[in-house]
Structures are given as structure tokens and as C-alpha cells.
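Recall that a protein's primary structure is simply its ordered list of amino acids. Everything else, from secondary elements to tertiary packing, is in principle encoded there. The following example makes that idea concrete.
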Amino acid sequence: MKPVVGGWSLRRRVITLLTVVGFLLIGLAGAEAAMAARNRTQIDAVLNQTGPLRVQSQELLNALLDQETAVRGYAVSGKPADLGPYRDGLAQEQSVVASMRSLLHDYPQIGQEMRIVEERATQWRQSVAEPVITTTERSGTRAGQALITDQARQQFDQLRAAVNDLQAEILSAREQAADNVRTSSNVLVVLLIVAALVVVVAGAVLLLSLDRMVIRPLTGLATQVREVAEGDYQHRIATVGPPEFIQLGDDVDAMRQKIAADLAEVRGARERIEWVNSQLQKQAEELTRSNRDLEQFAYVASHDLQEPLRKVASFCQLLQRRYAGQLDERADQYIAFAVDGAQRMQRLINDLLAFSRIGRLTTGFVEVDLNKVMGDVAGQTEAARQYADAELTWTELPVISGEEPLLTNLLANLVSNSIKFRRADVPPRVHISARLVGTEWEISCEDNGIGIEPEFADKIFVIFQRLHSKDAYPGTGIGLAIVKKIVEYHGGRVWVDTDVAEGTAIRFTLPALPADVEAAAAAVDSPDQPAALTAGDTTSPNETPAALPEQSGGSDRPDRADEPSGSGRTGDMRETVG
């Protein structure tokens, strides 16, 4: 039987309970705030009024005693210096009285006692102190001592008694203020306890209500949902509790009915999806096998073409050497064309063979010092640099994980390209640098050559793509394709930076070793140490590689490019050939 939806909703019940509790807590908070303000006022009275009044009343008594003692001493000695404590005491009395009056706004009784003390102090000075001082100055010490009688002493004792009464009144006011502080503190504690009890009772009521109106209905609903999930799609779901839960049970039952109605269609769709997945898996396997066959074909074709091509090239060269000048000029030209074509074909096949081997014939990744690699590159490109009067420099380069032969080939291709595509009558300059960007080393090869137009920046990395004729710049058009494949094999990317002032800047990334990344992160976190932006910490963020100390070599010095990294090099490594 379907439960009747009615009664207070869960939202209304919770809002009502929280509203009642909120009003109670707000009232208690207001009472606590008022009591806390009153408590602060009473504590202020104890600390900043009655406390200082007690101290100042004692200072007032001390000032009066100093005056009485000074008058007696002057009557005995007649020395004007003995009147110094009298004048100091009088000044101190006036200062203390002024200070005490500023604290007596809330204590009229103490103010009354204060006026009595002032009146008696004035009478004592007029009837005793001043006459003694005047008589001693005029008639001598004997006449002054004669004025200090028992009646004069009694008059000062009355002044002292007035001060004692003042101190007693101040002490009484202080004790009353302390009692008020204790009373208000106790009331504040009681209010806090009441607020805590209100919170505890409200929490207990809310917990019991949630258990009866939320947890139990949800538990029953979850049990029925599990039965449906286990396969009993015909089990009808019903629940009890607040109207929201009853509506939830109806919605879940409607969902059950929809699921049961769509189950057959879902099973059919699943079978079709499984069939499609199997077809996709077969196509993926075919594609993998096709790629493998293509790689093998490229390798075999390149390798098997070597022998007949060598024979053609050899015999063409024999014809050129033996019959040069014996035939007509056109025959010599035809033979030269044949020799050149055979040699170009050999270079193309060798480059294609090298391209197909990248990533297929692997020696395994090891830690490679790019400084040592640059030394090998300098040796490989020495002849080309001597011919072009080229200058090759590099900053301190990092140690990365990779294959040393491939990395050597990568940098040698970049340096050779920079030397080949040079400007006429301008000695080529090639500079290799590195900086850490995130978890990768960004390595740059920059030159002062002819440059690359932005629209051709992506085309140059496509195999056999050339931007110039072979007569202008020799080559097979595969060098930068090999560079791209080596970089991607090492998990990086390569691109042309078109925002340079002159020449060409080719940049590529290689994953950094975890130790380098951790060292850079530690340098960034350290407040007194700059972040490591370049390999070897040779530059600061605002410095340029040109500002680094260089180690150079040329025609008058031995070439030191292939020295080990521990040879004392602190800045740029520089090799100049010319």
C-alpha cells in the first residue's frame, strides 16, 4: 500500500528546530555580551581606578610625612637646605591630589574623604608649618622649636587619620569592585553553561530526529535498491518517512521500471559495441603490423639497394676517369650527370637507412653529458668549420638520459645546417645553450645565417622537403627530419623560433633528470638563492650567455672542445676555427 504523502517535510522540521535553537543562542549571546561588557568595566575599575588610588593615597601620606619631617628638621638645624624635602613633598602632594581627582568621577565618597584630607593639610600648613618656618627664619631655632607643641603634633595626627580614612574608603571601594567582578564572572560562566546545554540538547534532538526521519528510511531504501541491483528488477520500491523520502522512493521505482524496460535494448547495444571493439582491435593489430612491415621494408630496401648502386656509381666514376676528354663535351657532361646522380642516390639511401634505424636499433638510455657530446660534434664538423671560417660556442650543458650516438647525430645535424645555410661574406657563428623549463631542458641552436621564413617553419622538419635547390645548398633534405625523429624518440619536441633578430634559432626539449628538477625546485624555494635557470648555474635570470667567461681555442691553441667536464671550465665552452 502506497504511503500517504503528508505532514511536515524534513526541511520544515529542521528549519523549525534550528530557528528555535538560533533564537535561544542569540538571546544567550546578547546576555553574555552585556555581562562581558559589564565585567570589563568592573575589571577596569579595579585595575585602572581603585588600584592606582590605593598607591597614590600612600604616596600622598608619604608626601605629608616628608613635609612634617622637613619642618621639624629645619626648626632644629635652621639650615635652609633642610626645607628641600618640605617643598618637594608639597609639590608631590599637589601632583598626587590632581592625579587622584581625575579618577574620582565614579566614587563621590572617596572624593569627600579627599576634600577632608586637603582641608586638614591646608590647616596644618597654615597653623603649624608656615609659622614654624617663618619664626625659625626670623628668630632662630629655639623660637621655631617652641612652636612645635603637642597641639601641633595632634593636628598632624588628625591629618594622618584623615589620610587613613581615605585609604580605608579606597580599600572598601576596591573590595566592592572585586566582588562585582567575581559576581559578573560567575553569571557569565552560568550563561556559557546554559548555551552549551542548549547546543547539546539541540544536537541530541537533531541526532534522534535524523535517525528516525533520515537514516532509517534511507537504510530501508538502500536495502531495496541493492535487491534490484542484484537482478530482481521486478521488485517494487517503496519507502516511508518525510514527504521528500516518499517522493524519492517513487522516483527510484520509476527509474527501476525504466531500467527494466531498457535492459533488453542495452544488452543488444552491448553486443554490438563488443563486436565493434573486436573489429577495432583487429584494425589496430593490422596497423601495427603494417607499420612494422613498412619499417622493415624501408630498412631492407635501403640496405639491398646499396650493392647495385655502388656498382653503378663505381663504373660511372671509372668511365669518367678513363674516357674524360676522349669523347665529345656532351658525353663528358652525360657521364658527370650519371656520377652525380649515383652519388646523390647513395646519400639519399644512406640517410633513409639512418632515418629508419632511429628508435629501432637501440643501445638503451644512459646518462649522457652533452658537453662531451659537443666535443665530439666539434670534431665531426671541424672540416666544414675550417672551410667556412665558422665559430662554434656553447654554454655549460646538462647531463640527460638518452642514447649518446643519436644525440651526437642530433647536434651534429643542427651545427652542420647552421654552417651550410650561412650568409655570403659573413663568417658563421653557431651557439648552443640550455635552460631548465619545468621538468625539461630547452636546448637552443642559434646562428647568424640566412634564417627561415615563418610560413616554412613546420615544412623543414618533413622528410625530403627542401626550401632551396641542390645547386644553391647541397643536401638530401632529410637532416632536420632525423633531428625531429631523434628528439621525439627521446620524449621531446622541436620547433623553429621565428622571433629572433637575425639568423635561425632551432629549439628542442629533452626530459631533465629528477635530480636537476629537485635542485631547481629547492633553489626556487630558498629565499637567499636564485632559481637554477641554466645548466650549471652559470647565469642569473637577467644575464646573457655572452656575459659568461669563455674558454677559447683557435689556430694558435690546441683544440680543447673534447676535454672532460671536470677540466675547470666555469662558463661558455668556445671553439673557434678560422
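The CA atoms of residues 163 and 376 lie 104 Å apart. Residues 1-5, 530-578 have pLDDT under 50 and may be disordered.
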